[in-house]
Design goal:
4% strand; 2 strands; 99 residues; mainly alpha; single chain; 53% helix
């Protein structure tokens, strides 16, 4: 089980990313296509946005345990929870393979 502070930190980062997504996209477009003077000013504004507003800093975590590794995107949970839930029949359409 991950610490509650780690889970809360990820939630805060996700909110910041959502809040600044549109502004970041607009500034990055100016940096990429604008003339050099506008691009420089846009780059300065981009640097003033909080670091945690960058989507790269987000990390997928298990919805149940908060485990950061072994995350299965399709289900939003870690491999350990996935195996446990699949064995108990809690995930529709998934069953343990045996041959």
């Amino acid at each position: 089980m991950a610490k509650e502070s780690m889970k809360a930190r990820e939630v805060r980062r996700a909110k910041l990313v959502a809040k600044y997504a549109e502004k970041r996209a607009a500034l990055k477009l100016i940096v990429k296509t604008g003339n050099p003077v506008e691009a420089y000013e846009a780059a300065q504004k981009l640097q003033s946005i909080p670091k945690n507003a960058n989507p790269i800093r987000l990390h997928n975590r298990c919805k149940l345990t908060g485990r950061p590794k072994g995350y299965i995107r399709q289900f939003g949970i870690s491999r350990i929870q996935f195996r446990e839930m699949a064995s108990n029949g809690l995930i529709p359409g998934v069953k343990k393979a045996s041959w």
